[in-house]
Amino acid sequence: MASPPRRLSSLLYSLLPSSLAPIPLFHALPIYPLLLSSVFSPSLSRSLSSSMAPELQQDGETLPQNNNTYASDHEALHKTKVTVVGSGNWGSVAAKLIASNTLRLSSFHDEVRMWVFEETLPSGEKLTDAINRNNENVKYLPGIKLGKNVVADPDLDNAVNGANMLVFVTPHQFMEGICKRLVGKIKGDVEAISLIKGMEVKMEGPCMISTLISEQLGINCCVLMGANIANEIALEKFSEATVGYRENRAIAEKWVHLFSTPYFIVTPVQDVEGVELCGTLKNVVAIAAGFVDGLEMGNNTKAAIMRIGLREMKAFSKMLFSSVKDSTFFESCGVADLITTCLGGRNRKVAEAFARSGGKRSFDELEAEMLQGQKLQGVSTAKEVYEVLSHRGWLEFFPLFATVHEICIGSLPPSAIVEHSERKPEL
């Protein structure tokens, strides 16, 4: 079928309701005759309808198929299914955002599957059953309705079955095991996005989580990072985020449509490693900010730590990946995420308690007591960053990163967080 003239195409797009806007022109063609009937003469509309209607062969006779039925079947066949792999605090908020949009955007299936690592609640009820019965994650995001089209599923294979878009949002230390379970069960045309802040450190060097997903599962993987404290987004307070993509801008825009709401603004940036490293490294700086708060060193000291931290984030990222762009650090995933995490995130909160105890209470103990099952990322990331720095002989260039890890393992007291400034490395 020949493409409609450019002017006609533009007119038809202007007539489409917003819910149909994401559908490519060739997908939307079957419904255009319905729109034309209100613009052009009835005879022209009928003529166009009959010329577009597909035909069926039956007993040697050509029968025109009902155009409305065809449009409905064609649309259903091409709807995109979304699965969220992870159901913690941030994973539940991601499911809420996505579920509100799959109902609104006709190119997506309404139902959003959310894989849940099954747990038994104190009441004896399974977490999955509680989520589906209450329409909320009663353990990790209590009091927030996720959307009736969110379905919790404890079976990972079943949760991802048939999905076209996978959203990974679990603690980064679990991702290698999850990927191994999914090998051979994901088609190559599936698109993925990682909301995970962290990285794997192997003998050959650091491996970003998006790279791990791509290499293990053979699929493209974007990333989403930003100044996103989950509980605030759950309450629909205004926030921003950044989608990092490699080459396909159209895929990035599809992720933008899937996550964006009036209170959650998403911007695409062609810099996967830069966006992902910002989201990963800011947790290390947030640990340092927590030490400053616990020792009551004041806002001037905290601002200095944040500035030095941003400097080391940028230097580390560009030394690992020359493709990282300077401009990425001024996106939501960069300086904005650093600020909000150092002011209010869980890493800052637990590090403050660690410093108040003089380093006598371990991070594991504090995590179990303060986070109700959620996981810290900053401590494990600090260890992984330290391993990279040590292996490559870069420790002297990153005194803040090195000091955070040494405090976390008890080699230095929390007060050492400001003593690193005596060293003046040339990056």
Automatic annotation (TrEMBL):
Segments crossing the lipid bilayer: none
Keyword presence, NAD: yes
Designated gene of the protein: LOC110755824
Glycerol-3-phosphate dehydrogenase NAD-dependent C-terminal domain span: 271-419
Residues covered by the Glycerol-3-phosphate dehydrogenase NAD-dependent N-terminal domain: 81-248
Family: Belongs to the NAD-dependent glycerol-3-phosphate dehydrogenase family.
Coiled coil stretches, renumbered: none
Protein name in UniProt: Glycerol-3-phosphate dehydrogenase [NAD(+)]
EC number(s) on file: 1.1.1.8
Pfam family, one: NAD_Gly3P_dh_N
Leader sequence segment: none
Keyword Oxidoreductase: yes
One GO molecular-function entry: glycerol-3-phosphate dehydrogenase (NAD+) activity
Catalytic activity of the protein: sn-glycerol 3-phosphate + NAD(+) = dihydroxyacetone phosphate + NADH + H(+)
SUPFAM superfamilies xrefs: 6-phosphogluconate dehydrogenase C-terminal domain-like, NAD(P)-binding Rossmann-fold domains
A single Gene Ontology CC term: cytosol
Record GO biological process: carbohydrate metabolic process; glycerol-3-phosphate catabolic process
Species this chain originates from: Prunus avium (Cherry)
UniProt keyword annotations, A-Z: NAD, Oxidoreductase
